[in-house]
Amino acid sequence: MGLPNYLTFFRIFITPIFMLIYLKGRWLGISPVLLPYVLLLVLGISELTDAVDGYLARKFSQVTDLGKLLDPMADSIYRNSLFLTFTQPPVNLPLILVFIFLARDSVLSTLRTVCALRGFALAARKSGKLKAIFQGVSCALILVLMIPYSLNVLSSDRLECIATVIVSLVAFYSVASGVEYLWINKGFLMQIFQGKFSGDKGASDE
Q1: Which is nearest to 167 in space by CA: 81, 101, 109, 104?
Q2: Do the beta carbons of residue 49 and residue 7 sit within 8 Å?
Q3: Quick one: which of 78, 77, 70, 76 has its CA closest to 54?
Q4: Contact, 66 vs 4, CB < 8 A?
Q5: How far apart are CA 173 and CA 175, in angstroms?
Q6: Phi, psi for 204 (deg, rounded to 5)
Q7: How far apart are CA 25 and CA 10, in angstroms?
Q8: I want to staple 191 with a disulfide (CB 3.0 to 4.6 A). Which of 11, 106, 111, 197 is the partner?
Q9: Sign of the dihedral defined by the CA atoms of residues 172, 99, 137, 63, in that order
Q10: Better-scored residue on pLDDT, 10 or 149
Q11: pLDDT-derived band of residue 203, with 50, 70 and 90 as boundaries?
Q12: Which run of H or of E encompasses 199?
């Protein structure tokens, strides 16, 4: 374990808190005007843990195979849950966009797990890290758009349209980064599925 992995688990733990505040803010005494700011605070804390856990792992040489598996898994659970939450009013994202993210992450998570069972940990690539950044930025932009919506400056239809365009662009990049990940690691994957992988732990470009 270690602090980086604990921060990764914290990112998973904070996910239902975001969902609860977004969906049941009134029950918690949070006004519609205050809601976007509270959600931005929760999002900021989550994104900060994502940045800090990787930094600490590298700085203190705590990069582990467990961390290589947990970090993208936590990102997937956390950000896909946020997008799923945004399918509810007032954002009303199309559910198909969430399915795209889930399908992409499910395929790569399965491959990482299979590789790990064969003794090889596939590290994340820069394109995947950029995907995570784009997803985080898109969530922040949606929450920022909720501010003029809460003040009746932005209509619900316009909020939904802009949010859909933003997330659609991120979904397209996510699929592209997934294809690139598979292509770069095709050699290892072919060896594993053909039963020829020797079990030596290689290094994948970050």
Answers
A1: 101
A2: yes
A3: 70
A4: no
A5: 5
A6: -100, 140
A7: 21
A8: 197
A9: negative
A10: 149
A11: very low
A12: none
Count of C-beta atoms within a 10 Å radius of residue 62? 15
Q: Which single residue is written with the structure tokens 């856990």?
A: 53
Residue corresponding to tokens 């992409």: 104
What CA–CA distances, in Å, run from 117 to 88, 136, 149, 169, 193? Answer: 38, 30, 48, 34, 12
Question: Are the C-beta atoms of 119 and 201 separated by less than 8 Å?
Answer: yes
- The pLDDT, as a whole number, for residue 85 is 97
Residue 44 CB contacts under 8 Å (≥ 6 apart), including other chains: none
- Region 141-157 average pLDDT: 97
Look-up: residue for tokens 């997937």? 76
The residue that leads in pLDDT, 92 or 61, is 92
- Least confidently predicted of 57-61, 99-103, 134-138: 57-61
Tokens matching residue 123: 């590290």
H-only helix segments in the chain: 3-24, 35-59, 65-85, 95-117, 126-150, 156-184, 186-193
Over residues 40-50, mean pLDDT: 92
Residue 119, Cβ neighbours under 10 Å: how many? 14
At 19, the amino acid letter reads M
3-class state of residue 188 by DSSP: helix
Contact criterion met (CB below 8 Å) for 77 and 120 = no
Calpha distance 136→198 (Å, rounded): 38
Residues 67-116 have pLDDT tens digits of 667 777 888 899 999 999 999 999 999 999 999 999 999 888 888 777 77
